[in-house]
Amino acid sequence: MANIRRGSSGARCVATRVALMFLLSGGAGMLAAAAQQPAEPVDISPINGEVYYLINQLSGLQADLNNGSTTAGAALLQQPRSFTSLTQRWALTRLSGNFWAITNLANGLCMDASAGSGSTSTVQNPCAPATATQQWTITATTEGYVTLLNHGTNMLLDVTGSSTAAGAQLDQSTTSTTPTQSQQWLLRPAFFRGIDNALLEKQEEERAAASIPWWQDAGEAQDVLEILKNHGVNMVRIRPTSAPPYNTLTLNGTSGIPSTCTGNGCYAETDPVDLDLAKRAKQLGMSIELTLLFDGGSSNSVPNAWSSDSLSQAETDLYNYVKAEVEAYRSAGVMPDMVTVGNEVDTGFLGSLGSPTGSDFGPFAALQEQGMQAILDASSDTSIGPALPPPIRCIHITPAWDLTNFFGYVNSNSIPYDAMCQSYYPFDHGPLTAAQASASNPNNQPVEQTALTNAANTIGKPIFVIEAGEHYEGGFDSNDPWYAATLAGQRQFLIDLNGVTKGLPNNLGMGIEYWDPAGVNIPKSGGYTNGDGDTDAIYTWNGLTLFDDADTSGSSQSSAPNYSAVLPAVDALGGKLDPTLTYKLINLASGQVLETAAGSGSSGIPLTTAADSGIETPGSQWIITSNGDGFFQIANQNVASGQAAEVLDNSGSTTMGAPIVAMPAISGSASQEWNVVTEGNGTYALVNRLSGFVLAASGSSLEQQAPSSTSADWITPASQAQQWQLVPVHISTAAVVVTPPSFKLAGSVSSLSIAAGGSRDVSLTLTPTGSYTGTIGMSCTTSMANVSCAFSPASYTANGSDAVLTGSVTISSTASTAMVAMPRGNHRTAPFTAILLLPAGTILLLRRRKIPGASAMMLLVALLVCAAALTACGGGGGGGGNGGGGGSSQPVTGTVTVTATGSSGNVTQSLALSVTVQ
Predict the structure, then answer these.
(1) Are 567 and 519 contained in the same domain?
(2) Type and span of the H or E element at 321
């Protein structure tokens, strides 16, 4: 992002800051900041649950499967880099004892050891985290590399014979004082979650000089990079403006602020500062992206030293400069993971000398070729130490030039590169998705998702969104129509951008990086230190950072409690709210994971916590999905096929202490909506939308509780039982059907006959399952008159042992139970009716047919005669064997339904008995 507008794209780039020259020689502190700046942490540990490539320092090849094998015990190999194959991607999961499990993303098997024939091979096996040979210790070496020590063998991960050949097997070798190159591995994230905060140390210097509060997470001042790593960020972008070739800056030697600057140089930082920032990032295990030829606003200006260069001389100067820069970082022990030669080069590169155009791409290509070759040569130069694998080489443009079209020219001009880098800001570049474009696209701009997808399919290179940003409050630009200028809107943008990037074809989404997240306004006399063109300029953009400006009517309030507090969007950037991942929720108080106490299938399943074995069952895995309204549904993965997802729910209660359960998901249900809010140091509160209470562990059960306090940007917990860690799951059991607490009801017969006035017993069996506990009451219903039932016993008690319970039901009838006799009746009834109806019917017929009078009279007489005959057919007084009104009795059949109702779990079972009364 820049402090100036450039070209039709409106894209921006920001330059960085000035700091202390002594840092180049290894100085560790900041002048004036020492009294206020928190200590710089050292922790090279990977991010728990993150996915990495394992790159061997000697060969530059990556740990891989043997032709995608899924066979237990198969050997692991090293192979050339692939950006698409999941077989080269490894998830690192923290275990107890500070060990790590290393799991392959393609087959789910874990890195293990196998001893035999005098050597120890590195193989894959089903994950068993308690097995010592699947436990690894990670130790930092140099240049961001580590060793991986197997706990079971006490040996280091290595390559057989220190081979540099593709296909060589991985083995294990003994440790020594200084690890060999083949024993050292680079953990490079498979998906970068980065920040472009090249101004950070100048911002720190200004903040310390003005005694302004430091950046904070949940009220605790911390190192900015530590805060960001705690929230999942794994990369830092730096963009030095150097002398030579850029020489507009002069340090005054005491304050770390330049005494003079002109133009974009006021928004710049120097190599000494960026080297220190790179060291701070590496000592936190973070990756480094280095952008060169950044003039403080773009890469369009020509350095003074090169102003009279011909193209061929510029090629030489650029090669020498790029090689010297990469070697300076390498010599300082902070070899970058990615290097770009130029910033948003489609808007200009070294002026008319090298700016790309559709009709004349040649000069640009010639310069880029020299820069890309210089990166390789700086990596392999043995005069400054052992050769190292080269960084990823990237070319960075804006959406003003279609990605496929631009890199089509790159390919046709044979420029060597590894990745496509692009900036994307919705308020400048248009809608992210086709759905957004159909709703609103006032400038008829291209759809970003479509542009990225087309480039992935056509060009086939990984894509890194190297700059991104969105407002959480009104900025100096108008807001876009797709994301509200709110905290929730900013977070939703990064959730959506993450989804689009991770969803690119062939796994070609490389990551996203956020522009200047820490650029909060710093008050000074007469205004604010930001993009004001002064020598102390640090350039900020109100409402675009990932830390709170604490604005009131557009003016930052450094005395406000939420000033410089981390905002919720950082969790979307850091992968804590990624709907493509499943998470385990670890309670800070107990270290146990949240899980369903039983399988899915019925409403109101209770929750519990259980020890984290390192292997997560579906019942302890959760997907966090945005509802698009600033809240989330948190769905359990123990769901049988065809059943609705079951999500965290407070059952509609606004009472503190009410239990939290898993219920079938209902769209728009406030009791099922949760906000994820930081509680500091990588822990979170899950806040229910309906009640405002937070999820808490109470013993092994879960309930909603009140936190200690709620601030603008964070939650202060009342206890650690209210704090949760969100860790992606990569070691999982297959779906296991867990029996919910319930019971079954069965009878000894399904049908029976009873004599009128009699009864009969039916034996009953109640079989509890899933450790059901509760009282089971018995009842029955029937539509049969004078039929009743009685139970022995009337209720049962299930004690959780699942012991079978037996009893009986007695079905009884009275003597008058619906004994129906077919009615004999009076047989004169029908003929008598005929006598009444025939004349009337005849008269109606005569009128309708218009029969002549004589004929009609004859017809009427005939009908009367027939009626008399029918009357005679009735017989006498209707006697018979049963006298005057008897009949023959018939059996009556109906259903008696026996019901067993449990006092817990909403469990009801019924048994239908077919009953015949004789």
Answers:
(1) yes
(2) helix 311-331
Cis peptide, bond prior to residue 245, ω within 30 of zero: yes
How would residue 836 be classed by pLDDT, with cut points 50, 70 and 90?
Answer: very low
C-alpha–C-alpha distance, residues 844 and 801, integer Å? 81
| Phi, psi values for residue 8, rounded to 5° | -75, -20
Interval 205-228 mean pLDDT: 93
pTM: 0.78
The alpha carbon torsion through 188, 189, 191, 197 (nearest 10 deg) reads -90
In this prediction, residue 854 carries a pLDDT of: 45
> Are the CB atoms for 281 and 236 separated by under 8 Å?
yes
Mean pLDDT over 702-724 rounds to: 97
- Type and span of the H or E element at 172: strand 170-173
Closest alpha carbon to 682 in 10, 5, 43 = 43
> Is 756 in the same domain as 697?
no
Instruction: Say what angle helices 448-459 and 403-412 make with each other, to 10 degrees.
Output: 20
Residue 254, classified by CB atoms within 10 Å of its CB into exposed (0-12), middle (13-18) or buried (19+), is exposed
* Average pLDDT of every residue of the chain: 85
Question: Of the candidates 484, 485, 430, 472, which has an alpha carbon nearest to the alpha carbon of residue 452?
Answer: 430
User: How does residue 784 score in pLDDT terms, banded at 50, 70 and 90?
Assistant: confident
Q: Would strands 119-125 and 527-529 be described as parallel, antiparallel, or unpaired? A: unpaired
Residue 133 maps to a domain: yes
Q: What are phi and psi of 672, to 5 degrees?
A: -105, 5
Residue 298: Cβ-neighbour burial (10 angstroms; 0-12, 13-18, 19+): buried
Range of the domain at 862: 838-873
Classify residue 3: in a domain, yes or no.
Answer: no
| Structural element, H or E, at residue 187 | strand 185-189
DSSP string, 830-846: HHHHHHHHHHHHHHHHH
Q: Which residue has the tokens 């000398």?
A: 353
Nearest 5°: CA angle at 67, between 62 and 72? 100
3-state helix, strand, coil in the chain (%, to 5): 25, 30, 45
Closest residue by Cα to residue 864 from 893, 895, 834, 821 = 834
- Both 668 and 709 in a single domain? yes
Going by their DSSP bridges, the two strands 622-626 and 220-221 should be labelled as: unpaired
Please choose, from the candidates 19, 5, 10, 37, the residue with its C-alpha nearest in 3D space to the C-alpha of residue 538. Answer: 19
Structure token digits, residue 538: 């640090």
The CATH number covering residue 908 comes to 2.60.40.10
CA distances to 411, 597, 615, 714, 731 from 591, rounded to whole Å, are 52, 17, 14, 22, 17
